[in-house]
Amino acid sequence: MLRNLYIRNFVLIEELNLDFNDGFSVFTGETGAGKSIFIDAINILIGGRFNTSMIRKDSDRTIIEGTFDADEEISVRLKELGLDDDVLIITREFYSNGRTVNRINRRSVTAAVIRDMLADKIDIHCQRDSQYLLNSRYHMALLDNYCHDNDLLNETGEKYREYNRLQKEYEDLLNNEFNGAQLEVIEYQLNELNKLKLKAGEDEEIEQQLKLYQAKEKIRSLVENTRDMFTADDGILTKLYDFTRQQDNFSDFERISENVSNIVNAYYAINDDYDSIISYFDNDDISVEDIDALNSRLYDLQRAKRKYSLDLNGLISLKKELENKLDSYSNREAILKDLLKKCEIAHDDYLKSANKLSQMRKSASATLEKQVVDQLKDLNLENAVFKVGFSEGKETAKGNDDIEFMISMNKGQPLRPLAQVASGGEMSRLMLGLKTVFSSLQGTRLIIFDEIDTGVSGYVAFNMGVKMKEISHRAQVFAVTHLAAVASLADYHFRIEKTQNDTTTTDVVELDNEGRIRELAVLSSASVSDASLAAARELLQKASMVK
Question: Which residue has the higher pLDDT, 186 or 153?
């Protein structure tokens, strides 16, 4: 998902430009080389907080930019911003004076937009971080994703909203008792609106009619002039008519007969057009009394609109609302009884759906429990017991289950919430096992493990690397590690190193095969000897067999 990362003047990093591929990438380096700085930069890139103290010494700004593939969901969000692109480029610039510039594909946005753009797409996991897998409020959503049945979940939500709507309508009516003064106001307002006999769009129709009449009045004198021009004793039509009566006198002159005919035809055409123009104005059926009535009606409507601060449609809605209020008061007991019955039916329907949803969850949880335990056994947690705890909770659109993931790491220990697992090494393995199961369900595209293998070694460490590689088949995986067993399983190996000349600088370089062997030797034995190099080659060969 992350294709390129550019960092400039960030803490110890002067300038860094890295390209990445899908699969499993590891980052190794000596303590203090800046591995955490690299992860911090990615965290800031996706909307994390920045402090001006992070700007490299003797610099006035920090730039962090990342280029990501745009999946379908991100493409939709880009289009909402007016950007029709198949890549996502996030740029964040931080200045020493505190100013911040955030951009998506060169367009300025807020940090919140950046965080929303990559919501659920990137998961940065440190050894003891408190994130969605540990937080019980996310456990129901995780289990529902695992169930793969949105239809039942949506059905339960719809039935809850219908029940909630009816319940609110019942309670509003139950608590709404009008006194005499309120009833008088309602009746007065309703009577006033009824007298108006409101009709949607009437005010606009009247205004249009008045505008048309005013336009006709403006050209009334022109019409009279036109009448004189065409029909007076010396008018156009009179003279043309005289010509038509004499057309027979030209019958002996064949060469001009067609011309004479054209003039005669023109007379009849002009006469028809003249009649249409004059009749349009002569047949005007709007009288002065009609105009006065229209103005009076428009005045009444405008006065009502000003009084209630509503447009005509708003007045019509108010009238309906007042009728409902009056009807509710007049038939209050009968309506309350009917609403209560509807509430009971809607609640029963909701409970049936919620119970079906709960049964589906319990059935799926048995499979989930076994799958998680199998993952933990691979990580040398043979005695771990994972359970999905169910209890009756508050009725919501997602049912009435209260769900929390529980764990027991050792025989004889009671089941406890995930967040109460004490051992750092156990927590790391537990979280890795859970992520192996849930990463694809969450739609996560990039998972970053920041030294979660602390406290483990040997074949357990190797198996943790195997799990990370397994996850990388579904999502891009970055892992900062100090263990050769984990690093050997990566598809790509980067070394984070610190150089000291006039200033201290952190750099990141991708290792070739020989470079990887030397790095694995150092990670394993802190030396580069023939024996350590041979062991590193053997480890790399073993890792290459893992698919």
Answer: 153
